[in-house]
Amino acid sequence: AKMYGEESFLNIPYVINNGSILKMLGLNLGPIPGFNDKNKKERIYPVNQDTIRKFFKDTKPDKLNLWFNRDFSSWMRKKSAYRSGLFIEDASYVPLPGNPNYQYADYIWLDEDGNHAEKDAPGARLVQCYKFSSLLNTDRDGSYYIYAGARIDPGNVNGLNEGRDLIEGFVENGGYIDTLLMDRGYIDGPTLTHYKKDYRINWVIPLKTNMAAYDDVMGLCRAKDVDWKTYHLEQNDDGFIAR
What we know:
It holds the Pfam family DDE_Tnp_1. This protein is α/β, with parallel strands linked by helices. It has two domains: 1-59, no CATH class; 60-95 and 133-224, Nucleotidyltransferase, domain 5. It has seven helices and eight strands; from the N terminus they run H-H-H-H-E-E-E-E-H-E-H-E-H-E-E. The longest helix is centred in the first third of the chain and has 18 residues, at 61-78.
């Protein structure tokens, strides 16, 4: 429900408004005081927000994460949801209100835009947060984004191992990744080699002038006797990459 942009438990019941699903989950159903039969349109019967809160509180995080990254993504794959083969691995921080009851959350320095910052950077502030890692499927036009994996970790994790777990879990569960656009927090040499050698994943990474990979590219561009070839990509009718 949070993926629909609902932050308040008070609004979540209106997202989960399917009576069959609510009954299966064991959540309370019933008429709301003041409702009547005058309206021709079907009424939405929300569950009580305290019931929703207790339901999520009793959910084991590890089991929920395993269900989403294994069972749910496997079901989506069988529905051909990820057939483009194009994925984005991204990270973002989830700021918290500084409450000690948030387990495993850590304080890190963030800038005004919510990105990781150095302690002495202008506008940097110490914020309690989680780190949200996501694996998104999209097409070349960016016309849609579908979750293929996600996880929440303490805000101070470097993300490298967490990102690798997302990719390995998706592929070893039967998923197919042709091209992966990677956030720089998930990048190091052994990881890129592992993806290409073991999973045949073509990866796209951002380059900065202080990166060794940038020096390699510039060196190749300055080389004299390099036989440059155009790299062609073709998609068949099902959206898969045709070599």
